[in-house]
Amino acid sequence: MLTVAPPDAVELRANATFEALMWSLSRPGDVRTLPEAGFGAIVETLVDLECAAYADTPEMRARIVASGAMLAEKVSAADHVFLSELDSADIAELNCGSALYPDDGATLVLACAHQGQRLRLTGPGINGSKDVTLAVSPGFWAMRDMLCIYPEGFDIFFVDGTSVIGIPRSTKVEVL
Amino acid sequence: MSLATLTKDWAATSYGFLDASAKRELRRKMLKAIAVPGCQMPYASREVPMARGWGTGGLQVTLTLVNPTSVVKVIDQGADDGVNAASIRRFISRVSGASETWDTLGASIVQSRHRIPEEMMREDQILVLQVPNPEPLRGVEPNISIARQMHADADYGKLWLTLYEQIVRKGRIMQGASYPSMVNGRHVMTPSPIPRWDVPKLNMARHLTFLSAGREKRLHAVPPYTRVEPLVFSDRPYLVEDHADLTCRRSGVQGFFMNELPQDGGGSVFEVSDSNLGIKALNKTEGAPTEIGETWYRNGEYSA
């Protein structure tokens, strides 16, 4: 028996988006489906006036401002970073939190085709190992290894249309 | 931008009780908790219509996850029909429209106080444990700032010392519930006050586990296929409770965690703690169609 108003479209979308993000991060390398293509639903699900977010396109910046979040001028000041393309200068600036506060590490949402370089993932959430393909250069993973000193680090969602792959900082990535 | 885009129409209630901003905060923290298994993440812990300490942490996680297609099971010390469990389950279903169940196999979300069901949980299931004290170091370091530094340094020597002192004083490890466990080889967590019997069920499990403490405003998580190793000395093996040979007086099942019922005039009888497993066993003996799932313990031995 439901005693409150039934969920509206926004609530259902946010719930489904979070479910996709949660399972993709729980099982790194698994492809999950977002209810809506692109970053819009992810902003709606995670970002609000308690956050500072960075984006590299004017549309996403407008979306972030509309969510009430503070628009970060620099990647280093943001806890949520939305990138339409990979720029190593941006990655080097990502906030990795601290050993005292690992939760300060940024969440990086990256538009990236789920094909190209073959990778082997191991770590929590993976039974043995899992192979994925992502259109990211090997240099990115070398940089991630340098920046993410577990438990410090950043967590990544690779979004390709409605598909999402999550790679948390706990995952070891081997470039094949 | 206009005011209309920044505001929403007034509504008397929010779906799932928690408002949208509370859910977003929990979602952000739940993702970080998954990313750093076993590490305690602070969160705001909103008011829910229940006193802190009665499962508000677990409830907030469940209310964030739940949608009208969810099937929710809530257990309290293994039982589905305890007042606390029944009230939480009814509350969740009333504010979300989710279905209620007692069956572990049929549930999509299992919220639990102090037990993990005996039937193995599947890949698509989520276990939400209610945690009274999320800080495994509290007993050895009451200052939370120093405890945080100790977690940052992976400085768990005092926990080992506690276990050592128990062996020296009593001849065995006396820690019954909340057995400190190393997650992913880095963070020691408390698995909530589940008995030692249940801790192996978290190691390389197929399901996702959230542990949330509403009063202490912290949550942590154990993703699937994550190492959870109870702290143990190499010459003192980890021992679960000695329940393998006990038989439930009502259902007749053997080799599961039991509740002890002391009798007048001495002696005890036992009843299986996972009450729904007992009910299923009873139904089976009466010939009703019942599916008992694969269990973590078989013939009293952990065998997953």
UniProtKB/TrEMBL annotation, chain A:
MF-aspect GO terms: lyase activity
Keyword Repeat in record: no
InterPro entries, sorted: PhnH-like_sp (IPR038058), Phosphonate_metab_PhnH (IPR008772)
Superkingdom of source: Bacteria
Membrane-crossing segments per the record: none
Keyword Nucleotidyltransferase annotated: no
One Pfam family from the record: PhnH
SUPFAM superfamilies recorded: PhnH-like
Biological process according to GO: organic phosphonate metabolic process
Annotated keywords: Lyase
Name of the protein in question: Phosphonate C-P lyase system protein PhnH
Native source organism of the sequence: Devosia sediminis
TrEMBL record, chain B:
Annotated GO MF terms: 4 iron, 4 sulfur cluster binding; alpha-D-ribose 1-methylphosphonate 5-phosphate C-P-lyase activity; metal ion binding
Keywords noted in UniProt: 4Fe-4S, Iron, Iron-sulfur, Lyase, Metal-binding, S-adenosyl-L-methionine
GO biological process, one term: organic phosphonate catabolic process
Catalytic EC class: lyase
Stored InterPro entries: PhnJ (IPR010306)
Catalytic activity: alpha-D-ribose 1-methylphosphonate 5-phosphate + AH2 + S-adenosyl-L-methionine = alpha-D-ribose 1,2-cyclic phosphate 5-phosphate + methane + 5'-deoxyadenosine + L-methionine + A + H(+)
UniProt EC number: 4.7.1.1
Source species, domain of life: Bacteria
Record function comment: Catalyzes the breakage of the C-P bond in alpha-D-ribose 1-methylphosphonate 5-phosphate (PRPn) forming alpha-D-ribose.
Protein family per UniProt: Belongs to the PhnJ family.
Name of protein: Alpha-D-ribose 1-methylphosphonate 5-phosphate C-P lyase
